[in-house]
Structure formats: C-alpha cells, structure tokens
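Reviewer 2 asked us to include a model.

Predict the structure of this chain.
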Amino acid sequence: MQPLIIAFQLLTRIPIPVAVDHTPYNQGHSMLFYPLVGAVIGAVLMLFGALLETQPAVVQAALLLSIWVGLTGALHLDGLADSADGWVGGMGDRKRILEIMKDPSAGPMGVTAIVLVLLLKWSAVVALIESDTLLLLFWSPVLARLLLISLFQTTPYLRAGGMGEDLSRNIPQWKAYAVQLLVFGLALYFGVHWALLLLYISIAFLFRLLVLQQLGGITGDVAGAMVEKMELLFVLLCVLL
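Predicted model (structure tokens):
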C-alpha cells in the first residue's frame, strides 16, 4: 500500500497521516496509481457537480474549479507558472530556462499562464454543464495523470538527485504499459470517443517533442505543466468536438 499512499500524498492535499518509506521501489511503483488519484479527483468533482446542479452554470463551474485546485494544492499550477516563466524569460537558452524554473517566485508570464488556464478551464466546464455532458469532466484528471507515466517512461529527467529521477528510473515498465492500456480502454468503454482520444494523445506527443527540442528532457515543473495543459486540453476538446 505504500506506493498508493505516496501517490496520494504527493499529488493531492487529501490528509493521509501515514508514514511511508520513500524507497526507489516505492517511488517508481507509486506512478502506477497516478490515474487512480485522478479518478478520485474526478469522482469528487462529479459528487459536487451533482450537489450543485441547481445552481447557475457559471457559479457551479467556479465552485468545481475551486475544489479542483484545492484538492491538488495548486501543485501543478506552480509547475505551469515556473515553466511559462522559464520558456519566455530563457529566450531559448536551455541553461537559462532551467535556472529560471528553479526560482520559486512567479513572474508576469507565470501569473498570466495560470490566469489563462483557469479561465479556459472555467469556460469549458460551463459549456459542459450547459450541454449536460459534465460526466466527461471525470476523465480530465485521470488521463492527464496517466500521461505522466508515459512522459516519465520515455523522457530523460534533467535534475540529478531529485525525486523525479527516482520516479523515472524505477517505473515498472510492463506494469506501467498495462495500466495505460487499461485506463485508455476504460475511457473508450465509458463514452470517450476514440477520435477525441486519438487527437488528445497526438497533441500530448507534440508537447513532449517541443519539450525535448527545447530542453532535452523534463523536470518536475515540466511534468506539472503537462498535467495542467492536458487537463485543459481534454475539456476543451470535449467542448470543441
């Protein structure tokens, strides 16, 4: 159970006051439970969506988004802000980008990125509510965290000695592939259209190529930014398509 607890303690602010041993084995295996963490987040959003269904769509969407951010403690938004600051401020210089991303303060581009992502998420959730397809929102946190497994499996990690290095080096490969196939299969079975899913995966692959071209690998901030972008992408595709 320790890898499961590690996954929830890292990715959420759900209080689990249990001491765990952060061995490389437990760290690597914790990634197998990332989609489950996303499923819990999605289930909580569905629960509150049902409780708030009599409220105006704009209010319901704002409350759901607040709960969404609160469950993760804005962990991935922090990575998004750092990545945005680095990509703009670094001016294409790999070393400079990585230096800026280590700075804990958020610059104007980081703040702008957070505002735009939250605004777009809110707008998409409003549209899902108004079209009576809010159930699709469940899959946004699930699939975004599932893609983290693939990202860490296939992309070099740049910060030596960091927690992300333990994750990338100790992922159980075949179990990870099995989890990915299972979750994608469940998404298809429970109503996510295959064309939407194919486009979603293709754009995620393009994001990874851009990161490799710019940095040659990933950091924790890049991974966090990927989660935010892929959560947003899924709900936008649900609305646009």
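Residues 2-240 form one domain. The chain has twelve helices and no strands. We have added this to the supplementary material.
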